[in-house]
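Weekly structure sync, notes
Attendees: PL, DS, HV (note-taker this week)

Item 1: Tyrosine aminotransferase
DS walked through the input record. Source organism listed as Oopsacas minuta. Sequence as pasted into the shared doc:
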Amino acid sequence: MSADWSIDGRAEVLAIRNRIREVVEYMKFELCPGKELIELTLGDPTCCGILPPHPDVLKAVSDSVLSGLHNGYKMSKGSEEARQALADKYSSPGSVLSPDDVYLTHGCSGAIQFAFQALLSPGQNVLTPRPGFSVYNTMCSSLQIENRLYRLDPARTYEADLTDLESKIDSNTGAIVVNNPSNPCGSVYSHQHLMDILTLAEKYRLPIIADEVYGNMTYSGNKFYQLGSISESVPVLSCSSLAKIWLVPGWRLGWLVIHNKKGILRQSVYDSFNKLSTLTLGPCSLIQGALPKILSVPQSWHDDVTRHIECTALTCYNSLQKAPGLTPIKPQGAMYIMIEIDFSKFPDIPNISEFVQLLCKETSVKLMPGSCFETNTAIRIVTVDKKEKMQEACDRICEFCSNHFKP
Ligand SMILES: *Cc1c(COP(=O)(O)O)cnc(C)c1O
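Item 1 (cont.): predicted structure, written out as tokens:
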């Protein structure tokens, strides 16, 4: 080996950041001796071990393997059968979809990447929510796109602050990202609020990238509206996957569904997605083969999963009301609760990273700092584990806050 031969990683690639992964994979947490770790950081429903996938889903994959029919390449954008099954699932009376409106991707993240790459050029900006999911920023950092954050209002259960959203739009804006139901906020937008967002998008002629990976995962009294089916003219690229609703994030199968009622997205946009698909030749064929059966899991099973998560989420919400200095925001869906922190009441804790690290050191409860979601004043709890364990975690958080609170 030659001593003067060395190769560096490219600066553009080294600029890529995924803040969730930085915390989960690299941040150092000390534990409190004698207290069992309660890990509530990762939005992975399989971590708690009490939410298995539906047995039919496992059987569908095992059938797919044993059939021997799904070992070869599929179409780059996904097999016709899988895309047809998705078109059927997401069609509504106002928005009838064909398999040509659907592209299979490497998880929902892959769908988001497709949407960003197809719609946005380097130097343009995209409006994304704050607090918001870390992957939007990751995509921007990899594509030299400006991530322009619009405010979600905690006082209105994290609805978009439309005045702020509008003020951030300029001639370089290429799209608006709407995440409903929201990670990390647990919010579910009303029909009216979604219509207001659509009105704004129409006024400025902007397409919407809808991250709907939590689809129907909504708590009692909250209904999910598919943005693409209520939009009359604004083009909507809906991104989703098997990860959360079917509880199998590791299977890495996602999809992008195009709602283009007025034909505003030209054929060249579809061609762009076709070309992007040919970069990596599509997601795993075995899961594609199983997809039609996976999608037909009865809704009642999904509802049972959501009821469990709702019950835990509301337990946390109620219990954390008692924590001095914290304001939990009542969740309406997905699998998270956000808690706003009044740092003026915790003079010995300088910032959000210190908050989660000290909390872990003193209570062995591990949470996600808001900095992963572009906010420095909140923490996120994943609410999928057993109710008793979540109660214990909340009790420890309350005690921690009482110990450090200075009125
Ligand atoms: C989990 C999550 C994703 C990523 O989904 P994958 O299918 O695992 O890529 C995307 N968006 C949001 C809001 C998420 O919470």
